[in-house]
Design goal:
1 helix; mainly beta; three-stranded antiparallel beta sheet; Immunoglobulin-like
Length: 104
């Protein structure tokens, strides 16, 4: 696959988001290349909208994980992933990072 037609950046940081809020970002690529067959997301907290040249990503974390709260922490940095599957079944894995905090 031609690297010029892959999405970038491969890791997108959507910044700081409070529990229950939405972090947004966009992966982009040049026009052309293989068509997208589907996009698989790693969990239900990640949603995507796409065109052939852009993937808009939203993440929303409903609560801090128990492993974070039992340690007395008020934030954590999840890494979410999505897999773009192209028409020839090749794929590209993209990552979304953020710092999620509990404002209480």
């Amino acid at each position: 696959m031609n690297e010029n037609f892959l999405f970038s950046p491969e890791t997108l940081n959507v910044g700081e988001i409070a529990v229950g809020q939405i972090g947004e970002g966009v992966f982009r690529r040049q026009a052309g290349g293989l068509s997208i067959r589907r996009i698989d997301v790693g969990c239900g907290c990640t949603t995507v909208r796409r065109t052939e040249t852009e993937i808009s990503v939203n993440i929303s974390i409903g609560a801090l994980p128990e492993g974070v709260t039992v340690q007395g922490l008020k934030s954590y940095a999840p890494v979410k992933h999505l897999t773009v599957v192209f028409e020839d079944n090749t794929f590209q894995t993209l990552y979304v990072t953020a710092r999620v905090y509990d404002p209480r």
